[in-house]
From TrEMBL, chain A:
Species of origin: Paracraurococcus lichenis
InterPro entries xrefs: Fe-S_Maturation_MIP18, FSCA_dom_sf, MIP18-like, PaaD-like, Zn_ribbon_PaaD
Annotated protein name in UniProt: 1,2-phenylacetyl-CoA epoxidase subunit PaaD
Limits of the PaaD zinc beta ribbon domain: 121-167
PANTHER family: 1,2-PHENYLACETYL-COA EPOXIDASE, SUBUNIT D-RELATED (PTHR42831:SF3), FE-S PROTEIN MATURATION AUXILIARY FACTOR YITW (PTHR42831)
UniProtKB/TrEMBL annotation, chain B:
EC id: 1.14.13.149
InterPro entries: Aromatic_CoA_ox/epox, Ferritin-like, Ferritin-like_SF, PaaA_PaaC, PaaC
Protein name (record): 1,2-phenylacetyl-CoA epoxidase subunit PaaC
SUPFAM superfamilies: Ferritin-like
Organism placement in taxonomy: Bacteria, Pseudomonadati, Pseudomonadota, Alphaproteobacteria, Acetobacterales
GO molecular function: phenylacetyl-CoA 1,2-epoxidase activity
Gene3D superfamilies: 1.20.1260.10
Record gene name: paaC
EC primary class: oxidoreductase
Amino acid sequence: MSVLAFDREALRRRALQAAGTVVDPEIPVLTIADLGVLREARVTEEGGVEVDITPTYSGCPAMRMIALQVEEALRAAGLPAPRVRLVLSPAWTTDWMTEAGRDRLRAYGIAPPAPRATRRGLFGLEEAVACPRCGSTATETLSEFGSTACKALRRCTACREPFDHFKCL
Amino acid sequence: MTSILVAREAPPLLLHTMRLADTMLVLGHRLSEWTGQAPMLEEELALANAALDYIGQARSLYAYAATLEGKGRTEDDLAYLRDAPDWRNWLIAELPNGDFARTVLRQFLVAAFLQPWWHALAQSKDATLAAIAAKAEKEAAYHLRHAGEWVIRLGDGTAESHRRMEAALEELWSYTGEMFEADAADRALIEAGIVPDPETLRGAWADMVGRVLAEATLAMPGPAWMQSGGRRGVHTEHLGHLLAVMQHLPRSYPGAVW
């Protein structure tokens, strides 16, 4: 590897690292790296850095804010000519969420998505979702859609607490 | 306002992308009208979330259409600065919401088509459409489940909810034919492997609709005369009113930004 290529690789890694510190504005315990929203970074031909992010949902209203924060984080880290690119393919899946992210989500009171996205058929059996407070799996769906596009609303029938569930996608 | 689509020679891919985008935005706008008025908080959130999905899909499609058009217009220009005759959405999308029964039945009838449609479109030879479709398909699967469960709950519910669902079915059924239409522009894209042939999805759609209606104790309507026109720019009187509300701000305050 030439010295130049080595520098470029270091720059790319620094960009990924800086961008990875940005947190989701709606779920501030998760970074965009935890979420799998941060996809890739590269050094452009002009020597600037370009970071790819992908939306969780097509209409996720947080994307614009995330893009701005990424650009700011890159600039704050002293990275040259930062640019953010929105990519749609491959489509985001909760499978990309890190283990650490799932743990933090649970501690925050949001049930994490199942480790592997399953496609429950129409009116099929419900997946078992553990209550993030008491751990009981005796929980039921209140609504398929919760406070944000990526969450559903559930209730624990053991401790009676309602809670958000990060939907599997 | 100059129009891009009235011209018969609009390139098939641009026309098709605009038809999809217009349908998603009009449907998303209709759903957003429930905000503050839904029968319960959970459904308020659900309808608003589904509206966001549709509007998000529309944005991706408009952004692509703007690129295809290549005249420097943005997604906002395409959404806010065209009059009704330039819109190419399905008529079913622009119909007023009616009551909650009609709203969820429309969501169901449309999602039962869109979910397999996006699934097939994800295999498109057009990489951008394929990427938008792969994302939208996941969202459509949720919409289908949510709306389908409501159709059953209301159809197989009280006498009143059954009556309302039956009336909604009567009202909406003749608007379902447009989803399966394909004109010469569509044919060219179908042959090129860019979009699926909607006719090939009819079986899956009818199976899904038949299954849910049966469980909802509602009779599946037989073959009927079908409404047509939205994809050609011939609309009901309702679209103009919708656009007046949706486009008011950018037209009254040109260039307004957040």
